[in-house]
Amino acid sequence: MLGVIIILIILLFIFNRAYIHRTRILAYFIEDTKEAKAIRSTKEVHGESFVTKYIFSTDHKMIAKQYLLTGIFWAVIGGLLSLLIRVQLGMPEMDLDWLEPVLGRWITDGRIDPEYYLSAVTMHGAIMMFMVLTAGLSGTFSNLLIPLQIGARDMASGFLNMLSYWFFFISSCFFLATLVVETGPPMGGWVVYPPLSVLPQAAPGSGMGMTLYILGFVTFIISILLAGLNYITTVINLRTVGMSFSRLPLTVWALFFTAILALFSFPVLLTSFLLLFFDRSFGTSFYLSDIYIAGEALAYSGGSPLIYQHLFWFLGHPEVYIIFLPALGITSEIISTCSRKPIFGYWFMVLAMLAIVFLSYVVWAHHMFTSGMDPFLGTVFTITTVIIAVPSAIKTFNYIATLWGGSIHFTPAMLFSIGLISFLMSGGLTGIIIGNSPLDIQLHDTYYIVAHFHLVMGALAFFGMFAGIYHWFPKMFGRMMNKKLGYIHFWITFIGTYLVFMPMHFIGMAGFPRRYYTFTAFQYMDRFNNLNLFITIASIITFAAQLIFLYNFFYSMYKGKKAPRNPWKSNTLEWTTEKVVPGHGNWEGSIPTVYRWPYDYSKPGAPDDFIPQNIPLMQTKDSNTEEENNILERQRL
Amino acid sequence: MTEILFYITGVLLLIIFYLVYKALRLLYISKKRPLTSVKSNDVNAYLMLAFLLLFLGGFWGYSFYVSDEGLAEAASEHGDRVDKLFWIATTVILIPFTLLHILLFWAAFRFRHKKDRSAKYYPYNFKLEISWTVITAGTLIALIAMGIILWSDVKSPPPKEAEVVEILGAQYVWFIRYPGTDGKLGKTDYRLIDDKNSFGMNLNDPAATDDFTPPRIHIPKGQPVLFLIRSRDVIHSVFAPHFRLKMDAVPGMTTQFWFIPKYTTEEMRSKTGNPDFNYEIACAEICGRGHFAMKMIIVVEEPEDYREWYQQQRSWVSQHPAYLSNHGNQNKYK
Ligand code: HEM
Ligand SMILES: [Cu+2]
Ligand SMILES: [Cu+2]
C-alpha cells in the first residue's frame, strides 16, 4: 500500500515537472520549428549543482554511468545468490551457520532451507535477467552510445531519460525489499507461474514477497518504456547531417531494435502481472480454477494457468533477445575495430537483426511444449523456433568472416568479443535441439536448459557487457583500464564459464530437473555427485575472477592511465569529441557531419588504417571507391 | 578404444603445454624489453590456440567418458524414435560446433596483428552470404520436418484399448487412480476432496464405485498406456525420464500422454545390473518446498502379471464405506 502511495506521489511530481518543462520537452519531439532547433543545438548552459550533475542528471552519459553502477551492484548480488545455489548443490555438507546473520531463519542446522533455495533461484534469475542484463547492459550502452554515435547533443528528452533511470532505481528498491522481507522472496522461479505465485498457502514467498516483486516489475516496465520511447525517438530524429540509416553503426542498429522489441513486449508483461495482481488481491479467477489446498477448496473457478504462461512468454522470449541484441551490437563494433577490417556483410547483419525482431514475437510457446497446450501449437512453434536459428547463424558466420584476413589486436574488449562468438555457437546450437518439440519433451526443465540459456544468454550477454565496459571505459571515465588485469580476467572467466556450464548438458540429458534443492531423493539421480562438486568449485573460481574486474574497474576510474582521444583508432563519432569525456552537449563546437559508413578500416590507398566517419570524401581522394568518387563528382557539378 | 583415447589425450596435453609454454616465454621475453603490443598480442594468440585444443579435446574426451551416463537407453517405443532424432540432431549440431570453433580460434591466431601485414578491406560477398543462409536453412528445415512428423505421432490420439491411469498431483505427492473393472473413471469434483478422498470422487456416479487408488503405478509391458494427468493445487509435471515422457499437471484441466513401455522392471534390473532398479516419476515443474522429492514409482510387468494385479485390487469405496452413506453432500456436485 505504502508503495503505491509513494509511486502516486512520484507520478504527480513527474507530471508537474513535465508540465513545467513542456515547451522544452515538446521542442524535442517537434522537429522543424526554429525554437526546437535552437534548443537542440545550443549546449545547455546552466549552473550544475551536485544534485543535478550526479543524481538527477539529465545528461545521457551520467545516466549511463548510473545504470552501469546500479547494474554492477546487482550483478554482485545475483552472483552471490548463484554461489549459494551452487554450494547447496555441490557441497551440501558445508556448514552455512555463518550466514545466519544475513539469512536468519532460512538457515537451520547449518543448511539452507529448501524454500529459501527456491527463492535464491528465483531472485538470481530475475536479478540477472532484468536488473543486470536488461537495465545494466542495454540501459548503460543505449544511453552512452546512441547520442554519441549518431552525433546528437543528448537524448530526445533528457528529462524522460532521467525519469527512466529513477523508475529503475525505485524498482531496484522494491527488489531489495523483496530479498529481505520476512516471509521470503517469491519461490516460483523467475517466471512466477500461478497458482504457486498466487497462493501464500502453497509457498510463503507468494505473500508479501510476491507483492513487492510485482511492484518491482511494474516500476521496471515503466522505466523500460520511457527509455525505449526515448531511444527510438532519438535514433529516428536526432541523427546528425549525413548519418543516414545506411551509415548507422551496428551498435546503434542493435540498440534501436532492442528498444522496439522492448516497447512491444513489456506492456504484455504488465498486463499479465496486472491480472496476476487481480487474482491475488481481488479474488478474480483469470488464472486459477479447481484448487484444493491446505484442507480447503478455494472459490476460484474457470481460469487457466496456461493463459498466464502465454502472456508471460510473449514477453519472456523477446526478453532474451532484448538481452542478446545489445551484446551483439557492442561486439560487432569491437570486432571490426580490433580486426582493423570492415564488418563483413553489414546489411546482412542488419537484416538478421530485423528478422530476429520479427521472429522473436512468434516463438514464445516453445517454452510450453509440455504445458498441456494443444499439440498443434507445438508443431507451429517448432517451425518458427528452429527458423530463428537462421539469422543467428548468419551473424555467427559474418563475425568469423570479419576476423578472417584481419589484423587482430587482442585488447581485453576484443578477447571478450571472441569469447562471445564462442558462446553464441555453443549455446545457440543447442537451441536447435530443444526448439524441436519431440526432443524438448525429455529436456524441458532439466539442466540441459540451464546450460543452454546460461551460455547463449547469460554468458554471452555478460561478455558483451564486459567487452563494452573495457572498450568504452575511456569514454566514460577518461582513463584506460589495466590491460593485463583484463587479460587475466578474461582467461579465467572464459575457461571457468565453460567449466561451469558445459557439464550441465550431460546432467540434463540424464534427466536432472532444474530448481531442485538436492538430487538425493531419486535413484536415477544417484550419479554425477563429483561433477556437481566440480561445477561448484569452478563457479566459485569464476566468481572470484570477477573481483579482479571490480578492482580494475574502480582502481582505473581514479588511477588508470589517462586516455587519449581515440584510444582504439576507431571510426565512430563518439571518439571525435574535443574532450575525452565530453561535457553536457557532447561536442563543444558544432556537431560533426558524417560522410561515410563507420567501417572504413584498412581501406586500400588510405594512409592510416582507419578513416573516421566525419572525414569528408574530399580529403580521401586516394582511397575513395569508384562510387564515392562519383558522389564527389556529382557534388561538384 | 580407451587406449587410443589415452594416447590422444596425452598428445593433446603435450601440445597444449607447448602452446602455453610458448605464450609464457613470450611474456618472459617481453618482461625484459618494454612491453609492446605485438608481444601481448602473440601471447593471447597462442593462448587462443591452446584454448581451442583444451576445449574441443576436453569436450569430446568427456563426452566419450560419460557416453553411457548421460542419456540412458529409452524404455518406451516412442522413446527410441525420440532418441534417434536426438542423436541425429546432436550430430548435426556438433559438426558446425567443432568446425566453427576451429575456424574461430584459428582465425584469431592466424590473423593476429603483425607489423608486416595489414588487414584486407573486404566488406561483402553476396554469394557467400546467400550460400550459408541457404545451407543453414535447408539443414534446419530437414530437422524441422523430422521433428514435426515425430511430434504428431507422439501426440496422436491414444489407441482405444490403452490402459488408463489417472495421476493427480498435489503438493509433494502423486495420487494414482485406476478405472477398475468397468474401465471408466468416476466423476470427481475438487470441492469433494478431503483427507481420505484425495481425488474428490463423487460416489453418486456408479463408475466411481469400482475405482481403486494404489500406492504405485503398475502398467503392462508392450501395451499402450494412457496417463490422464491432473493437479489439485499448483502446477506439477509428470516426468518419467526412462520413458521420455513429460507432461504438466495443471489445476482445472486434464492433460494426457500415452506411450508403450518396452521393458519390464525386472528386465531393466538385469539390463542395468542394478537389483533395486525402479522406474521413477519426478516432478519437473517447480511446486514449492518439497518439489525435489515428489516421487512416484512405476512398475512395468508382463501383461499376465499386470492383469492378475489388477484383479486383486480392492476398490476405494470398499475401504472407505462411510463415503457411500454420505450421498447428501455429494449430490451438490452432480
Ligand atoms: C556465476 C555465474 C552463474 C552461475 C554459477 C549460475 C548458476 C545458476 C544455477 C545453479 C541456477 C539454478 C538452476 C536450477 O536450480 O534450476 C541458475 C538459474 C538461472 N540463472 Fe544463473 N548462474 C550464473 C549466471 C547467470 C547469468 C549471467 C544469468 C543471466 C541471464 C543467469 C540467469 C539465470 C536464470 C534466468 C535462471 C533460472 C531461474 C529460474 O529457474 O527461475 N544466471 N543459475
Ligand atoms: Cu524462448
Ligand atoms: Cu514439483
From TrEMBL, chain B:
<dbReference type="InterPro" id="IPR036257">
    <property type="entry name" value="Cyt_c_oxidase_su2_TM_sf"/>
</dbReference>
<keyword id="KW-0679">Respiratory chain</keyword>
<protein>
    <recommendedName>
        <fullName>Cytochrome c oxidase subunit 2</fullName>
        <ecNumber>7.1.1.9</ecNumber>
    </recommendedName>
</protein>
<dbReference type="GO" id="GO:0004129">
    <property type="term" value="F:cytochrome-c oxidase activity"/>
</dbReference>
<dbReference type="InterPro" id="IPR002429">
    <property type="entry name" value="CcO_II-like_C"/>
</dbReference>
<comment type="similarity">
    <text>Belongs to the cytochrome c oxidase subunit 2 family.</text>
</comment>
<keyword id="KW-1133">Transmembrane helix</keyword>
<dbReference type="GO" id="GO:0042773">
    <property type="term" value="P:ATP synthesis coupled electron transport"/>
</dbReference>
<keyword id="KW-0479">Metal-binding</keyword>
<keyword id="KW-1278">Translocase</keyword>
<keyword id="KW-0812">Transmembrane</keyword>
<feature type="transmembrane region" description="Helical">
    <location>
        <begin position="130"/>
        <end position="151"/>
    </location>
</feature>
<dbReference type="Pfam" id="PF02790">
    <property type="entry name" value="COX2_TM"/>
</dbReference>
<feature type="domain" description="Cytochrome oxidase subunit II copper A binding">
    <location>
        <begin position="160"/>
        <end position="312"/>
    </location>
</feature>
<keyword id="KW-0472">Membrane</keyword>
<feature type="transmembrane region" description="Helical">
    <location>
        <begin position="6"/>
        <end position="24"/>
    </location>
</feature>
<comment type="function">
    <text>Subunits I and II form the functional core of the enzyme complex. Electrons originating in cytochrome c are transferred via heme a and Cu(A) to the binuclear center formed by heme a3 and Cu(B).</text>
</comment>
<dbReference type="GO" id="GO:0005507">
    <property type="term" value="F:copper ion binding"/>
</dbReference>
<dbReference type="InterPro" id="IPR045187">
    <property type="entry name" value="CcO_II"/>
</dbReference>
<dbReference type="InterPro" id="IPR011759">
    <property type="entry name" value="Cyt_c_oxidase_su2_TM_dom"/>
</dbReference>
<feature type="transmembrane region" description="Helical">
    <location>
        <begin position="45"/>
        <end position="65"/>
    </location>
</feature>
<dbReference type="InterPro" id="IPR008972">
    <property type="entry name" value="Cupredoxin"/>
</dbReference>
<dbReference type="GO" id="GO:0005886">
    <property type="term" value="C:plasma membrane"/>
</dbReference>
<dbReference type="Pfam" id="PF00116">
    <property type="entry name" value="COX2"/>
</dbReference>
<keyword id="KW-0186">Copper</keyword>
<feature type="transmembrane region" description="Helical">
    <location>
        <begin position="85"/>
        <end position="109"/>
    </location>
</feature>
<keyword id="KW-0249">Electron transport</keyword>
<keyword id="KW-0813">Transport</keyword>
